[in-house]
Write a structure and sequence with these properties.
The complex is a heterodimer of chains A (520) and B (511). Chain A is α/β, with parallel strands linked by helices and 520 residues long. Chain A has 17 helices and 13 strands. In chain A, a hairpin with a 5-residue loop joins strand 1 and strand 2. A six-stranded mixed beta sheet of chain A has the order 9-10-11-7-12-13, with helices on both faces. In chain A, strands 4-8-5-6 form a four-stranded mixed beta sheet. A two-stranded antiparallel sheet of chain A has the order 1-2. The radius of gyration of chain A is 33 Å and the shape is elongated. Chain A has three domains: 22-167 and 240-275, no CATH class; 176-232, no CATH class; 286-498, P-loop containing nucleotide triphosphate hydrolases (Rossmann fold, 3-Layer(aba) Sandwich), CATH 3.40.50.300. With 511 residues, chain B is an alpha/beta fold. Chain B folds into three domains: 2-9 and 23-169 and 251-265; 175-233, no CATH class; 283-509, 3-Layer(aba) Sandwich (Rossmann fold), CATH 3.40.50. Chain B is 50% helix and 16% strand. A six-stranded mixed beta sheet of chain B has the order 11-12-13-8-14-15, with helices on both faces. In chain B, strand 11, helix 15 (392-406) and strand 12 (411-416) form a beta-alpha-beta unit. In chain B, helix 6 crosses helix 8 (152-169), helix 6 (103-129) crosses helix 11 and helix 8 (152-169) runs antiparallel to helix 11. Chain B is elongated, with a radius of gyration of 32 Å. Classes of the chains: A alpha/beta (520), B alpha/beta (511). Strand 1 of chain A pairs antiparallel with strand 1 of chain B, so a sheet runs across the interface.
Amino acid sequence: MKAFLMYPERDFDRAAELPASAQELIRDLGLNSVFAAMAANDKFLREVVEKAVLGSLAAPADILYRQAVLRDCLAHEAVVRGIYALAVEVIDSERKNFWGGLTRHPGYVLHRSVEVLQMFVGHLRHLRKIAEESEGHFESAGFRRFFAMLIEELSDAYFEEIEQHLRQLRFRGGVLISASLGMGNRGRDYVLRKPNPGDRGWLGRLFSRGGPVYTYRLHPRDEAGGRMLAELRDRGINLVANALARSTDHILSFFTLLRAELAFYVGCLNLHAVLGDKGQKVTFPRPAASGERRFSCRGLYDAGLQLSMSGKVVGNDIAAHEKEIVVITGANQGGKSTFLRSVGLGYLMMQCGMFVAADEFEAAVASGLFTHFKREEDATMKSGKLDEELVRMDAIAEHIRPGAAVLFNESFAATNEREGSEIARQIVNALLDVGTEVFFVTHMYDFANGMREGRAERALFLRAQRSEDGTRSFRMIEAEPLETSFGEDLYRKIFAEEETPGETEERPMARESGTPVSAA
Amino acid sequence: MAEAFRSILFVDGRAAAEDAEAPDILRDLNLDQIIEGITAGREEYTLKPFFHAPLIELDAILYRQEVMEDLEDGRIRSPVQEFAAAMHRMREELVRAGKLYYKFQKHWWFVDAVELYGRAVEALAQALCGIEVASRGLKGLRGYLAEYTATDAFKALGEQARELKERLAAVQYSLIIRDDSLSVRAYDEEADYSVAVEETFRKFAQGEGKDYRIQFREPVELNHVEAAGLDFVARLNPELFASLEQFAVEKTGFLDATIQRFDREAQFYLSYLDYVRGLEQAGLPFSMPQLAVAEKRIAVSDGFDLALAKKLAGAGGQVVCNDFRLDGGERIIIVSGPNNGGKTTFARMFGQMHYLARLGCKVPGRDALLLLTDAIFTHFEREEKVENLRSKFEEDLLRVRGILQRASGRSIVVMNESFSSTSLKDAVFIGKQVMRRIIEKDVICLFVTFVEELARLSDTTVSMVSTIVPGDPASRTYKIIRRAADGRAYAIAVAEKYRLTYGQLRERIGA
């Protein structure tokens, strides 16, 4: 019994390793806020969506398979959430209601298995009923196969078969044990004793001796006490308990997998709802075959940023088909990093089979997505800053294959501009020449300008928009790199009140820029 | 003297500020790692507040320096360590006694804890009597312990605890277990039946399938059936268990407050000395710093970054030491030079030493003469946060402005690659503006920057540079020396080292 909702003929593997670049992606693209919105405070959802979003699909056909399932989910949200809730309920009941403290006790395993099986039968019947009702209304190949399978496999005979496995064993007689007091006045040195010989039954003899005998009688409902006393008697029922426990495990694993596969789609539904509440649109992207130089978007916005904003985040329109590199320059605080993150998110969301936070999105499937963002001083002190950047670049080089996409954010600026530019040129030219799609945010005029001269038609230049009075629109416009930066403005703004009048030339101040919220 | 003793950590005996939060410079200077390392495994003592609260008064610092110097002597330190270990066990047992439900279990652990306490205090008092101590702190403690251990109450406590434990250990009894009952009576020397019983269970253990044999756990706490059994054992030995209960009720307040406080505060010294010992054994110099109060002079030979040294020591690496000094009118050290040359490490070392000195600790370096600072400020480049919508640059400027507003002539400021997130042109402009303000305020400053022009701004400024191995630009000596900046960096050579030049990279990726 397989759900196969994530792949046409394969289970979703929750234990699969994340790509080597995963931690960098989470950090650099701000994925945690996206994961949080998808998970909606559910730890399990969180675990699954992290795996699914980061475990990019490579084939456009697999992406389209999930897109179809997700479309069904959006069209029949209540049914899908209902099935998910059912799976969660089964798993939770199994865990909470039936596994007590003494799980390794064979007598308990046996007893429990019966109760669990009875609970399972009810839920499986419910699931079959949903399948019968929904069969004709879902359109995706994934759901159609899933419902057909449920109807076929879940017959009454299956459950009756399980119930035949119940057994009970009894152990008669009592035991005599000697002991002394150890640490904490706990009994120690337990030694099973053979009663001294005599004519009468040994128990009878025990109580006929001199000296006081104190007796504690278990309450009939005192299960814990009963378990302690019965400990020695229960080993014989191991095999039956084991077999029965295994059949419950089998059914449980079906629900577990079903829950995991649906969890991804429930996460997508959650995100869809949150973005919708904020008035943002999403689109099902068009994945192109790996290796084609395809990248275009309309209204592509940073979903992660949108989640933390009340107003609508600004989107960008980019047409970069046939381009191999996009170089982004311009004002500090002008939305460059945000744009870069929106591109990274676009790739990830598309390649996990989700919608993308845009009005339109098309891109070639990347063989791998990598980010190289400028970092704080390396807390492990293994190396200096530039070294630290090169170590990370080295790690990317270890894992990257032709057809990948790499996002650089102010990389290689830890040294001075001239040298940083030279290093960037070496690396980027090599990446481009093996078919990598590169997005590079930089302040290094020398590097940016070099790309303009060297790559001409195959490079696209964007600049963070900045008007005459210093305000920023957070929109990227197509424009060639400029040689100046805007740090001096900020300096004058921040230190303004400390400057004595006349000491510095009066200039228009950059307006308090606030947050990247559009006027609408 | 003895009656005056209250604290081994504070000369005036005042209570420590328990809410001291970690100053935000700790992270930049990697002091957070150092403090984490020092206090690791000693969480029960809550030592971080001590390490987060640098002292202001010179005499308070000297009081600690004296104690630390005494405790460097193994003959003084060992008995204190043994005392601490015993107190730790004692406390665990008291906690256990408190958590347990059944009174005869509580009582047993209580008696055991009392016995441990008595022995630990006696041993420490005796050890300190037989040894020369120089510090005001340990002399005070010695006097206090001599008086305390001589009291009748203290002596009786230990004797009673020992006797009770011996008598309990001698008790023996028998259990009779049936389907639904547990009986207890006196032991009657019946034959051992375990061999036959084991045979029975061996038979069940054979065969296929999962192995469900139970591993018997030995939790501290009895279950209710076992507890019923213990109650019966107590009824069989009524006089002994009555004495036990009486002891537990009467002696609850047995712990002395001053001794408890010493036990915690001593960990400040022990933890720090433990932390640095391995490095000292590896030949790295530490010295108790002399603190300049009146004049602004700084001089250290063979200084090093403690956090890095600790890390390298773990990995078997070599620690490079560096000298630094500020004489006469010198106020500012500009550190520039090749990347990965140890500049950041150098900056951290400078800040760490001044911080550690104010804790009363010895510092990583030889013949340390340091400034007694009123505040230490750092400005290290911070990672860009996705949630933070202000640009990094603006944030940098705001932070620097805040520092400049608060710094006094007795402060030090450590800046590391500040303003590097903008163009070279901007970095030079802002660097000069900020330096001008620092010079005006007469603040002691260390500034790591690639804007080497800053070293030529004033005659109060000293230039230091990281150095390379001649003929091998990709290798670093990690030596930072006083020398004019030479304007040569070696970035491409470093790229080659990581096989990231155009040719190398193409070859690696293939295609």
